[in-house]
Amino acid sequence: MICHRRTILLFLAVIPALLYCIADGYAQPQDKQVIGYKVIGRDTVFVDELPPAVIHPRQYMTRREYKDFYRRLHNFSKAYPYAVFVSRTIKQTDSLFLADGYSKRQKNRYLSKFKSELLDDFKPILRTLTLKQGLMMIRLIDREVGLTPYYIIRRYFNGATAGFWQGVAKLYKGSLKQPYDKFGQDKDLEEFVQMWERGEFDDYYLWIFGRPMPEIVIPEKYR
C-alpha cells in the first residue's frame, strides 16, 4: 500500500510540472516528418525507408538474470503506455496553445484546471502500478519528452521537493537526476521501445509469458 501511495504521489509531482513546461515554452520541439520523392521524367515517385529487420543474438543468462529480465519486460508493458500518453498530451496541449494563441495567463488557467481533472481521473488507475513501475515510467517520460524528472520538479516546485523524490528513487536504486541513457543503463528499455514501435512487443510478450499483455486503462476522454 505504501508503494502504491508513493507511485501516485510521484506521478502527481512530475506530471503537472511537465504540463507547466508547456506554458513556459520548455516542451521539446516535435520533429516533422517529410516523405522524400524523386522526379523521374514527368512522374513524381515518393520514396520512403523501410525499418530494418532486427535479428537478436542468442542470449545466455543465469536464472536470476532471466527473472530480472522478465520483471523488467512486464514492468515496461505497464509503464510505457503512460509515458506515451504523457508525451501525446503535451503535444496536443502545445498544439492547442499555438492554434488558439493562448497568453501566458490563459495557459496557466487552462493547465490548472486540466491538472486537477487529470489527477482525479488517474489516481485510481495508478494504484495498479508498483513503485518500480512508476520509476520506470518516469525514465520513459524523460525519453519521450527530453527533460529529467529532477529538473522538472525542482524548476516548477522547489529544491526540497525534488530532493525528497530523489531520496525515494534512491531507496529503490533509481535516480531522477540521471538522463535516459539508451546506450547504457536503459539499453534494455530502448530495445523494448524499438520492439513496441515496430509492432512486435505484443507478440513477444505473449511468447515470453504465454498470455496477452496486460490491459492499460486510459480514460475515454483522453483517447
Provide keyphrases for this structure.
about 220 residues; mainly alpha; two-stranded antiparallel sheet; 8 helices; about 60% helix; globular
Describe this structure in words.
The protein has 223 residues and is mainly alpha-helical. It has one domain (2-27, 61-216). Helix content is 62%, strand content 4%. The chain contains eight helices and two strands. A two-stranded antiparallel sheet has the order 1-2. Helix 2 (63-100) crosses helix 7 (187-197). The longest helix is centred in the middle third of the chain and has 38 residues, at 63-100. The model is unreliable at 27-32 (pLDDT under 50).
What's the quick description here?
The chain is mainly alpha-helical and 223 residues long. The chain has eight helices and two strands.
